Structure formats: C-alpha cells, structure tokens
Amino acid sequence: MGFLRHVPAVLLASEFFIAAIGRLVPALRTFHGRVRRKSLLTAPALYPMVPFRDDVRAHMRYVGAWLLLTGLLVAIPATRGSRVTLGLVVFWTGAGAWSQWKCGMAYRVPVFNMALGALVFWLEQGR
C-alpha cells in the first residue's frame, strides 16, 4: 500500500511536464501550436504575474521553464512535501485557472491540479 501514495505525485509531475513540453518544444508542431494559440489569449491576462504581455514566444518559454521546475520539484521525493513546492503548484495552477477563467475557457484542469498538489503535500506531511 505504500507505493499508492506516490501515484498522485507521479500524475501531477506528469501534468506539469506535459504542460512544459507543450511550451518549450516547437518540434511537436500540433501540440505546440495548440498551446501557442491558447497562450495568445491568456498571456495578456497573466501580465501582472508573467513579465511578457506581447511577446508570446518569451511568455511560453518563461512559463514553460517554471512549469518544468515545478514538475521536477514534485517528482523528487525529497522536495515534493516542501512548502516551496506547494507554493509553486498553487501559484501556477491558480494563475492558469484565473487566466483561463478570465478568457472564458474551461479551467477544470488547473483546478484539479491544484487539488492534486494539496493532496500530494498532505500525503507527504503524513509520512
């Protein structure tokens, strides 16, 4: 039963890695294109939190790097229970939910990931 408590962390880390890959790897044309079209709408809504409003390419690289770092922190067992990791998870999933809500998009995935991040933190605190 001990290995089951790692499942939420693996799922959350995978979500962050997939989101980062969509922003950082232009070789995946279809996936990168979908994320780029979405970023064209959400980048202006994230401007106070992300320092790029008009340069969507820089916006995608900046957010992708942070999502990759957050995914790494969630994937490493020694750091997944830290408050810094929880803060990054809550910040980036909250920013995603807020910007998607502001643009009229569905925002259930970021909200689910935020809840998953809280579950991972809670499970790691109860070791």
From TrEMBL:
Alphabetically ordered keywords of this record: Membrane, Transmembrane, Transmembrane helix
Segments traversing the membrane: 6-28, 62-79, 105-123
UniProt name for this protein: DoxX family protein
Organism (species): Plectosphaerella plurivora
